[in-house]
Amino acid sequence: MRAARVVLGVEVRKRFDVVGFDPRGVGTSAPVECLSDEELDAFVALDGTPDTAGERLALEEGARRFAEGCRRRSGRLLPHLGTVNVARDLDLLRQALGERRLTYLGKSYGTLLGAVYAKLFPGRVRAMVLDGALDPGRSRVRLGAEQAAGFERALRAYAEDCLAVGGCPFRSRTVDGALEEVSGLLRRTDARPLRGDGRREVTQAVAVLGLLGPLYDRALWPELGEALRRAFKGDGALLLRNADQLTGRHHDGTYSNETEANLAVNCADGGHPRRPATYGRAAAAAAARERAPRFGAYLVWSSLPCAYWPHPAALGPLKVEGSAPILVVGTERDPVTPYAWARKLAGALGSGVLLRYGGDGHTAYGGGSRCVDEVVEGYLVAGVVPEDGAVCPGIG
Fold first, then answer.
1. Is 362 a catalytic residue?
2. What are the structural domains of the chain?
3. Would the keyword ATP-binding be found if you checked this record's keyword annotation (predicted)?
4. Is residue 6 predicted with pLDDT exceeding 80?
5. pTM above 0.85?
6. 3-class DSSP state for residue 234?
7. Of the residues 47, 74, 108, 360, which is catalytic?
8. Catalytic residue among 135, 334, 360, 373
9. Per-residue pLDDT tens over the stretch 286-318
10. pLDDT tens-digit series, residues 172-198
11. Annotated active-site residue in 131, 135, 351, 362
12. Active-site annotation holds for 89
């Protein structure tokens, strides 16, 4: 597995045969399909922060078309999607490899998969690292609101760093002033999209996606600065490129099934309101100035297709008992999976052990912290379980 050299340390690669797989509905494992490439372009560009009745109706219709497209194009597959079924697939992989117990590393969504596996098969866990934890006890609406707050903190951290180091795209010399410039940019794209690549414009929704992508990783902050610098001058091409990377759009206009699979799996797992009005109220609350004024409404509304999902929820409450110790790694300023989720997941696992990394970015292992890497690899290779609540300092 070529990606193992990037994801895993030398000692881990020496100790284990590394196996990765596309979960059902993803990539080459019978990928779920919902819309044509042209329809996905239109779906991604939809106004995701509706502030008029007409915009809200358009968003609701777009979400309904997405769910209906999944049913029409992948109807036989949809009832069999979801994390519970993927966890069962994972155990079949374990059996096929002749392993008595599983050693597992899961990041981001992979933390939910690992936790569900431990719930279903607690006695088959040898070691499990869950890095960048999802909180399975929260609805997607609440997850979206809390993610938005995390991205707001990351944007503030970027502005603080940029103003301290220099070379910023902002006219203001204060953090609050810089953030208000970003808000102004988003308001302008809501009224009048920016120039994109000559064929597509940069709507407000695309601009939001173009900001979110580089906030995943501190190493991408220079790209965010250049994208903002150009966008303030009316050129949205770099924001569009960032958005394409986040949604899985290729240069030739085709898409991977990343956007469709993410929504389909989340919708299959459930925990979604069925009334659009519920999303509207939650979006308004999330977008309050003291919470997430730039990202709150968009990230809450983004799960609206699940309101029209044709199948019931497949993921029940999560409580794990009888497993070997499971290491949960949480990053203090993770914009995608807030640190509080790591605390919550570790508590739900029964045998969960929490490692806190005091840094930025989404997930910690392999991100440059020698402390985190040594703890994770010592646990995976030799079974050395750290003290619950251990802390690794941030870097950079």
1. yes
2. 4-26+99-137+317-393 (3.40.50.1820), 140-252+283-294 (no CATH)
3. no
4. no
5. yes
6. coil
7. 108
8. 334
9. 998 788 999 999 999 999 999 999 988 878 788
10. 999 999 999 999 999 999 999 999 999
11. 362
12. no
